């Protein structure tokens, strides 16, 4: 429909603090018990090889990491890695689907880090 904006729960660019229309969608969703992590898809085994825009240490949960990404104000956060063993959260401006060959690897090895986008 012309003039309508439909926000996707799974694409951070469409629902972000940088998109005023999306703030009411996010607020409404949280009012229904939706968690920050509900806005992301996990990519187990995928490791991003390029540095992130921000590193948050002492992050105690993946939900907190998702919240940091959703509420980032310096750049549009399109994904993050949470490493539970080191309690680190790396925020990325590139969505995992926009990465080029060589900017990520897919591993079958079990890891304590998971990428979300």
Automatic annotation (TrEMBL):
<dbReference type="Pfam" id="PF00024">
    <property type="entry name" value="PAN_1"/>
</dbReference>
<protein>
    <recommendedName>
        <fullName>Apple domain-containing protein</fullName>
    </recommendedName>
</protein>
<feature type="domain" description="Apple">
    <location>
        <begin position="34"/>
        <end position="113"/>
    </location>
</feature>
<dbReference type="InterPro" id="IPR003609">
    <property type="entry name" value="Pan_app"/>
</dbReference>
């Amino acid at each position: 429909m012309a003039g309508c904006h439909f926000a996707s729960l799974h694409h951070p660019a469409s629902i972000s603090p940088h998109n005023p229309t999306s703030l009411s969608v996010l607020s409404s969703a949280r009012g229904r018990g939706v968690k920050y992590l509900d806005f992301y898809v996990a990519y187990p085994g995928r490791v991003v090889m390029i540095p992130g825009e921000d590193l948050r240490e002492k992050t105690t949960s993946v939900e907190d990491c998702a919240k940091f990404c959703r509420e980032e104000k310096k750049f549009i956060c399109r994904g993050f890695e949470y490493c539970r063993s080191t309690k680190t959260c790396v925020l990325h401006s590139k969505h995992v689907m926009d990465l080029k060959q060589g900017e990520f690897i897919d591993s079958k090895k079990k890891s304590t880090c998971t990428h979300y986008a």
